[in-house]
Amino acid sequence: MAIISVRDLVVEYDGRRVLDGLDLDIKQGEIMVLLGGSGSGKSTLLRQILGLSQPKSGSISVKGTDIARCSQAALNKTRRSMGVAFQSGALFNSLSVKENVALNLREHTRLAPTIIDLMVWMKLAVVGLAQFGDLHPQELSGGMKKRAAVARALALDPEILVLDEPSAGLDPVVAGELDELILFLKDALQITALVVTHELASAFRIADRIAMLFDGKLLAVGTKEEIKASQDPRVRKFLDRAADNPVHAPAMAAYLEQYVQVKEQSHE
Amino acid sequence: MANILEITGKRTLNYLEYLGSLNIQLWATLRSMGSALPVVGNRHRWRAAVYQMLDIGVNALPMIALLAMCSGFILALQGASELRRFGALRYVIDLVAVGFTRELGPLLTAVAVSGRSGSAFAAEIGTMAVTEEIDALKVMAFEPVEFVLAPKYVAALVAIPCLTIVSNFFGILAGGLFMLFSTHLSLPLYFHYVMTSIALRDVIVGIIKSLAFATIVVQVGCLEGLRVRGGGDAVGRSTTTAVVRSTFLVIVADAVFTAIFYFIGKV
Asked: In chain A, which ranges are E strands?
């Protein structure tokens, strides 16, 4: 059964259509990777699924709640079963890493402080940051911030984990570690994960299914093998990393030569 | 010609839209303010409110005191140079006492707090908007208005009237020092005259004004922060706009209040 289902979603910014009649189902317990280039509408779709902006038309249901039309209370209830790690981490700068992870537990549960401490330590240990809990976000490296954001997203043991560009800007080793972490979480906790990325290696490592987004539409949805075997030219272009406007070397050289000549003449 | 009309219309609509969102935000803050109160509210919000009170109030004390002393001294000097010609130097006391409790105390405090804390609110909330922290709050099922705005508003409603009273005291004290040095009027006697010239009503008027100014400074500062889109330069611009708009609105509100109290007083 689909835990997240998007139906005929249309989103416009200032009259520009960003998502155009999109349908997507994410099943319970799978890792769905949303793949697409810059400007393909990945982040927009993510914001819609999180209920951060309103669609022009269409519906999004998360765990059976239509989040574009439900009350604020119902939206908050749904949000408590989702853990989100933003692209920049979005850790609260005024709080330490520990307090960032503890915030949800402290405010949304009635657990004793000692239990909360223990749970925070466990979440931080899962992402390998157990000894960095007392630092503030600005003292962390880029990779550590992303892992701390994952720990915060896991705080309430969510059914759905949403990760926005988890490996962007990380070195290959750290990015690889994060991929393994996501796979580990899926095996250990059976969570559903929605991962937005444009990194092919990472996508093919972790995905159960991949959805390819292009110009506000879904080009293809399928397993890794199906996507790899796709014959759609736009999918192939993305997978084969073919550039649209390759720099034309001879033309560039001719232009430079001409430029130098003009400069020399003006000197003489 | 049509162009001028078009620009005027657009500007007017923009200002109306701005005032509208300010009121919507104020209403939302008032509704969630209960959570930032002690005992009945959420203790984490109350703790945040106390920290804000320290920042808005206690940390601004030296600055407000000095500002009020200087202004009180200026008012006494300027008043004395005119009143002396009529041999009415004694009325400097009334001028400073009534001028500060009803007018200058609340106004000076509001302008100083708008520069110190209004800009800080815009910068803090603007940065949170740029770094997706506001979005993170929302997806963690927190209301940004309740989480961020309510503690600041509660803190300002406590801190700014207190600062106003401090400012009144130091402004009047400066007037007393002027009288001490120019006419050898002793300070206890000066304060006795001050007490006879101001009524409790004057102090209450000043406090009511300062509550309104606190509302303007907090709501404008936070609204500017929440409206930030884009990057770091937008945060910088929002702090400037916050100070300019809140100072402007504070002075407009002051004019309206003073007019209202003037006509009520006549009746």
From this structure: 2-13, 16-27, 31-36, 57-62, 65-66, 82-85, 160-164, 192-197, 209-214, 217-223
Q: Which domain holds residue B63?
A: 2-266
User: Residue by residue, what is the 3-state secondary structure of A96-155?
Assistant: CHHHHHHHHHHHHCCCCHHHHHHHHHHHHHHCCCHHHCCCCHHHCCHHHHHHHHHHHHCC
Q: How many domains does chain B have?
A: 1
Instruction: Give the residue among A103, A40, A107, A51 at the shortest CA–CA distance from A79.
Output: A51
Tokens linked to A29: 């317990």
CATH 3.40.50.150 fits A2-29+36-81+194-267, yes or no: no
> Are A52 and B139 in contact (CB < 8 Å)?
yes
Which helix (H) or strand (E) covers residue B75, if one does? Answer: helix B61-83
β partners of residue A197: A35
CA distance B42 to chain A (A): 9
Interface contact flag, B138 A52, Cβ < 8 Å: yes
User: Are B217 and B109 a contacting pair, CB within 8 Å?
Assistant: no
pLDDT tens-digit map of B219-240? 999 999 999 988 889 999 999 9
Contacts of B141 in chain A (CB under 8 A): 76-77, 79-80, 108
B44 interaction partners in chain A (CB closer than 8 Å): 106-107
User: What Cα–Cα distance (Å) separates residue A184 from each residue in A31, A140, A176, A191, B76?
Assistant: 12, 23, 12, 10, 75
CB contact (8 A) between residue A106 and residue B44: yes
* Residue A82 in contact with partner chain B when CB distance is under 8 A: yes
ipTM of this model? 0.83
Q: Looking at the complex, does the CB of residue A207 fall below 8 Å from at least one CB of chain B?
A: no
Q: What is the pLDDT of residues B152-196, one digit of tens each?
A: 999 999 999 999 999 999 999 999 999 999 989 999 999 999 999
Torsion of CA B246, B252, B253, B259, to 10 degrees: 170
Q: Which residues of chain B have pLDDT under 50?
A: none
